Amino acid sequence: MPLLVGGQGWGWCRQPIRVGLMRHPVQGTWLIDTGLHPRLLGGPWWVRLFCCCLEIPPGPPQVDGLSGIFLTHLHLDHVAGLRDFPDLPIICSRREMEGRRGYWWDLLPPDFERRVRWIEEIPQGDLFGDGSVRAIPLPGHSPGMHGLLSEQLIYAADAAGHSRILEGKARRRLSTLIAWDRGQEAQSVALLRQYPSHLPRILAHCPLPQGPFERSPC
């Protein structure tokens, strides 16, 4: 994916597609996004075209004993595996669900709205009611994208495509040119820069190691 670098033109950058896990002592283990899935290869032409530049894994992440799924947003590279996790509760943004432009909705299970809890209805975005993890709005890349804030890190999803953007060493990536709202994306990047510097910002597509929390890209 092209990365436009300030003062140095642009260059190509190979980017991973990450998912995450959050473990809570009471609420259990939650999957953050579900990543890619071979079902994308049977999608409409524009989905198959998108897949041409991807390495499609054989299936979704294999995690036992999940308690639920948190969806940062509904782009196909973040929800393609969702149907492989039946019955689990889902947390997602209602605003994201209502921004239906350009999504392949067949990726969502038919009982999605029965299983979902809307972020906007969770007081202060406090997912587990104890202040340990909060959902923070990071719109721009998509209408209702949310990241996660804890005492250890910020999971910033697709708010920026590369750590160098947050560091001010690069201006934008290719997907910024087709973002839902470039102005809001810039505001979300500015918000991430305001958090204390000791908090790692984990980005779903940055090719650089994502701090001590990195395991392996999906």
The CATH topology turns out to be: Metallo-beta-lactamase, Chain A
Which radius of gyration do the C-alpha atoms yield? Answer: 16 Å
CATH class (first level) name: Alpha Beta
Strand percentage: 15-25%
Order of helices and strands: EEEEHEHEHHEEEEHEHE
How would you describe what is shown here?
This protein is an alpha/beta fold. The chain has one domain: Metallo-beta-lactamase, Chain A (4-Layer Sandwich), CATH 3.60.15. The chain is 17% helix and 20% strand. It contains six helices and twelve strands. It has helices at 45-51, 76-79, 94-98, 112-115, 163-166, 182-194; strands at 2-4, 10-12, 20-24, 28-32, 66-70, 90-92, 116-118, 134-137, 146-149, 154-157, 172-173, 201-203. A hairpin with a 4-residue loop joins β9 and β10 (154-157). It is globular. The two termini are 17 Å apart.
Please render the helix and strand layout as text.
Elements: E1 2-4, E2 10-12, E3 20-24, E4 28-32, H1 45-51, E5 66-70, H2 76-79, E6 90-92, H3 94-98, H4 112-115, E7 116-118, E8 134-137, E9 146-149, E10 154-157, H5 163-166, E11 172-173, H6 182-194, E12 201-203
Parallel strand pairs: 4-5, 5-6, 6-7, 10-12
Antiparallel strand pairs: 1-2, 1-11, 3-4, 8-9, 9-10
Question: Key terms for this structure?
Answer:
five-stranded mixed β-sheet; 218 residues; 12 strands; 17% helix; Metallo-beta-lactamase, Chain A; four-stranded mixed β-sheet; alpha/beta; disordered N terminus
Quick summary:
The chain has 218 residues and is an alpha/beta fold.
